[in-house]
Amino acid sequence: MEEDDQQKLMDLVKELVVRLLCQKGPNSVPQDPGSPQFHASLRYALRILSSHLAPSAAADADAIAESIKRHLSNHGKSSHALAFADLYTKFASKTGPGSVNNKFGVLHLLKIISEDRISAWNEVNSPSLLPNLECLDAEVGDRWRVSHERDNGVSLVSKDAESFRKVAFKEYADLAKEESEVSEELLVRDVLYACQGIDGKYVKFGTIVDGYILPDMVRVPRATRTIVRKLCELGWLFRKVKGYISESMDRFPAEDVGTVGQALCAALQDELSEYYKLLAILEAQSMNRIPLVSESANSGNYLTLRRLSVWLAEPLVKMRLMAVLVDKCHVLRGGAMAGTIHLMAQHGDPLIHEFMKRLLTRVCSPLFEMVRSWVLEGELEDIFAEFFILGQQVKAESLWREGYRLHTGMLPSFISNSLALKILRTGKSINFLRVCCEDRGWAEAAMEAASAAGTTTRRGSLGYGEKESLESLVDVAAKRIDRHLLNVMYNRYKFKEHCLAIKRYLLLGQGDFVQYLMDIIWPELSEPANTIGSFKLAGLLESAIRSSNAQYDEQDVLNRLRVKMMPHSAGDRGWDVFSLEYDPRVPLDTIFTESVMAKYLRIFNFLWKLRRVEHALIGAWKTMKPNCITSQAFLKLQQDVKMQLLSTLRRCQVLWNEMNHFVTNLQDYIMFEVLEVSWLNFSLEMEAAKDLDDLLMAHEKYLSSILEKSLLGERSQSLHKSLFILFDLILRFRSHADRLYEGILELQTRTGESSLASKDKNKLQRHKNDGTLENGSWTTEGRKGLTHRASEFLRNMKQDLDSIAKEYTSLLEGFLSQLPVQQHIDLKFLMFRLDFTEFYSRLSLKKT
Amino acid sequence: MDPEAARTARESLDLAFQMSIILDTGLDRHTLSVLIALCDLGLNPEALAAVVKELRTEPSSSPPVLPPPSSFP
């Protein structure tokens, strides 16, 4: 069998060789099997056949068929491919005796032969390609047609247009290659270098133009130049960002860049490292060619400039963002920087939004850290002045008002003003507690606050974007600390009690004490100011306290009450320099500051004066009550003197009544409608106060309302002056009234003495002992002289009283006319009290 | 060969010939049949293709000096 096969083989091979040699050309001579050429060829053929023992490709007929089909369709011969597919199907279906067993071999054979032919044709044809496309058409077309004609037996219709296009493309590619001096590969590499800020071989950074450009000397088509320029924008942006980062890093040791700036640099560097990764991948791609699907496509480099521009589109957007950011934040620091970045993050594009948000989380972390430590611990660790709360060194008593304030320049825009105020207040409270109240309890309050808000008191638990958690933390901390502070204020330092004490003593609320004090201090204060010793006054104060209900007050409160002598000038009486003062200590002096105490002093002075006037009038009343002396005098005198006396007395009484009416109503008004009402409002607000700021405001309101209503405000200056003139007048009246009654008493004693000389001397003795008279010269005169004297005296008194009365009336009228002009509604109540019978308004109407 | 087998063989040859036309191998029917027979006998198709190529593109050049052919299975 094998011999047969061998023989068959030889025969077939011989046959093949003959055939092939016959086919070589029209010039070939039909060979006969005996020629030496034939034998040589035969031997050659046998040699070739023996050297290949195994096929190189896998023995899979279907795969080969597929490959052939693809190949055909890739070269535009899709109809051929279909026909081939059809044929192959039929071919493969033929089985049984007589069919081809080694189908794979046949197909493989055909494929290789066809490829060989094509390559042979290409070798033949390529040298003849000329740059001139016009001649090419005809020539190539001829060749193609000729080649097709060579096919034995079957004529195929060749598609001229298709082949033209293929050839035309090839031509263009060659043209482009010739035009550019630099290959695209090198340009791509240069562009990649430029994107990292490094000058390439062709693409360099031109400082004048401020960009990466290809110098004009390099011959590149204009389109390529444009696209290189566009891609190098990325390099310019990169340089800018990198420049900022390195500049900031250089300024670190100089402590010029704050923590926020450092965080920004770190975040930018992270983004840049992402960018570097991308560039590394692109560079790797540009070095190695990625194998393509189509095996016989003659491709250049995979990474062309166009592909590069697609890849770099997204980094370009990001880099542009970073460059804009760098521009804006160049001169800013701290909270202002964070605020600017936040504003830039308000963007609709989700990519930009995400990017900015990432950046912001890093940038704001130092800020949030500062907020957290401030709110929970009261610590202000701000070396670079980036925080929006500024602290300064002040004395303990002004710590609350001036120790810390908001710096709106550094306030980032995502923290609202009210939140910032809350933050300020919380930290301020903690510091206040620590410094002024020496309280340790705030730490527990802070811990509770932190646990209640769900965060820890450690670092790094807050972040940007978690605005709700920040707000809740601040809220809870603020509430707790405020409550704690108010507790400390009320319970430990007894704020309410002190306030009440001030009201009772400085605002003359403790009536019995004031009365007693007034009584015993009256004679003292009438002396000139420089003769009064403060020790004496202090002693009097003590005795006043002890004899009134004030003695039951707390010792701490009583200790703080003192007599204060104001600086006096010549001619001052004790009345002008006397005042009481109350000593608030730390921390209450935050509320009762110097200016506040000065206001209290003013009110005290006014009230004291009012009391003095009232006291004077009451004293006058004491002497004016109907008593035996006057009635006796009344009886003893002659008719006309009697009339004089009557009228004088009557005048006195009437005047006194008026003045008393005025003073009493004023006093009542002050007492009830001003002081008590304001105090009630203040107590209500004290109850409702949530933090120390509220308390301060409430107290301010209380004081200012008192000032306003008691005519001590700025708008009531003129009224105030006229009021004081009235007071002076009343005091003058008092002295006149005193004199009058003294005179009457003197008169009485003298007349009583002369008429009662023989009568009841005991009565006289009694009378004498009562009064403080000197009965020197008068007793010697006769009755007539006495009468004359009396009438003269009375006349004088009457005149004085008249003048006083006139003055008083006019002043009061002036006062009352000015009252309605006042803005404050409560002064209308004063008006009503003073004029409820409309006596005065009718009077003024009559006059006009 | 029986007529069935003969017909099959003829059809197969036709199909193969048409395929070879599509692939533009430049082989005529007879050569193709010889080649198919040689393939069937187990010869390496790449070797056969090489033979075809060599003998075709050898325009009356003097044949190279060859060593005596070794026996092959």
Shape of chain B: globular
Structure annotation, total helices of chain B: 3
Strand content of chain A: under 5%
Give the helix level of chain A as a range of percent.
Answer: 55-70%
Distance between termini of chain A? 162 Å
Question: Unreliable runs of chain B, pLDDT <50, ≥5 residues?
Answer: 60-73
What fraction strand of chain B? under 5%
Q: Please write the string of helix (H) and strand (E) elements of chain B.
A: HHH
Number of helices of chain A: 32
Arrangement of strands in the largest sheet of chain A = 1-2
Protein name (chain A): Gamma-tubulin complex component
Main location (chain A): cytoplasm
Keywords (chain A): Cytoplasm, Cytoskeleton, Microtubule
Pfam families (chain A): GCP_C_terminal, GCP_N_terminal
Write a concise keyword list for the protein shown above.
heterodimer; A: 848 residues; mainly alpha; two-stranded antiparallel sheet; two-stranded antiparallel ribbon; 6 strands; rod-shaped; B: 73 residues; 3 helices; 60% helix; disordered C terminus; cytoskeleton (chain B)
What can you tell me about this protein's structure?
The complex is a heterodimer of chains A (848) and B (73). Chain A is mainly alpha-helical and 848 residues long. In chain A, 69% of the residues lie in helices and 3% in strands. Chain A is built from 32 helices and six strands. Chain A has helices at residues 2-22, 36-51, 61-74, 78-93, 103-125, 133-150, 160-179, 184-194, 222-251, 259-287, 305-311, 313-329, 334-344, 350-377, 399-402, 417-435, 442-453, 467-492, 495-505, 511-525, 534-547, 555-559, 574-577, 594-624, 628-636, 639-688, 692-709, 717-755, 761-770, 783-818, 826-834, 839-847, and strands spanning 204-206, 211-213, 389-391, 404-406, 561-565, 578-582. In chain A, the strands form three sheets. Chain A has a two-stranded antiparallel ribbon with strand order 1-2. In chain A, strands 3-4 form a two-stranded antiparallel sheet. Chain A has a two-stranded antiparallel ribbon with strand order 5-6. In chain A, α24 (594-624) packs antiparallel against α26 (639-688), α26 runs antiparallel to α27 (692-709) and α26 (639-688) packs antiparallel against α31 (826-834). Chain A is rod-shaped and about 205 Å long. Chain A starts with a helix and ends with a helix. Helix content of chain B is 60%, strand content 0%. Chain B has a domain at 3-44. Chain B is globular. The two termini of chain B are 26 Å apart. In chain B, α1 crosses α2. Chain B has 73 residues and is mainly alpha-helical. Chains A and B meet through α1, α2, α4 and α5 of A and α1, α2 and α3 of B.
